[in-house]
Amino acid sequence: MIARYGAFRILRPIWPTLPRTTAFPRRLINSRPVEAKHDTVEQTSRPRVNTYESASEPEIPSPSKSGFQLFKPKEPLRDRDSLPEQVRRLMRPVPQPVTVILAQGPGSLLPSGALVSSFNTVTLDPVPHVSFNLKLPSSTYTEIEKSGTFCASAISEPQTAKVFLLRKDSDEYKEELRRYVHPRTCRLQQGMGGIWWMKCQSIKEKCVQVGDHVVVIGKVVEAGPYKEGFQSREDDTPLLYAKGHYRNTDKVAT
């Protein structure tokens, strides 16, 4: 008995370093549990085999077998190659002049204004005619129908354009409108970014609705610059709209 306990005290310091090949068996992948033998401790020079490497990988369930989907199908995207989208992308980089259209019918306390990028001349002889487009419904077109006239103004300041992008029913828009627009002539006030103005008479029988827009035709009855010497000033280039932004340019290509 003394010899047995004496041997245990001798082996106890080196016991943790001995290979534990028989204690605490584990269940490995695709393998049977190892039978534990506690009677002897064997030391062997054979290399230990990593059972995890030799085990085969678990099989991924097939959607047809398990009834689930590995990836949820995405919703179909909007057709970006449709004809309207193609035309929109093609015309997006084309610079368009920015013009303010103002009209005030009888009984209206304030004029109504719209910012358009479609203003252009139709003909100059024998009488100048202009045209532009408005998206319906439009409070500005309602005032044009009531009054039969409108005033177009080219602008050079982006801040002036921002005024007419405000909500028409907001107090800020009404306050800015009183500050920027003359109450009787529907022209811009002096020093508010205006370059030239054209007072026009709407030709109702020539106006035509196309889709959700109306093409307005007007006869120019009076026109003039906001500043003297407009034709010789180099800093009075009208504001342009292209690629989703307002731009100024004075560069000459040829």
Question: Would you kindly provide a written description of the structure presented here, covering whatever features stand out?
Answer:
The structure is a single chain. The protein is of the alpha+beta class and 254 residues long. 20% of the residues lie in helices and 24% in strands. It has 7 helices and 11 strands. Strands 2, 3, 4, 5, 6, 7, 8 and 9 form an 8-stranded antiparallel β-sheet that branches. A 3-stranded antiparallel β-sheet has the order 1-10-11, with no helix packed on it. It starts with a helix and ends in a 7-residue tail after the last strand.
Write a brief structural summary:
By secondary structure, this protein is α+β, with helices and mostly antiparallel strands.
Largest sheet: 8 strands, antiparallel
Distance between the termini: 115 Å
Strand content: 15-25%
Helix-strand sequence: HHHHEEEEEHEHHEEEEE
What gross morphology would you assign?
globular
Throw out a few tags for this protein.
254 residues, three-stranded antiparallel β-sheet, 11 strands
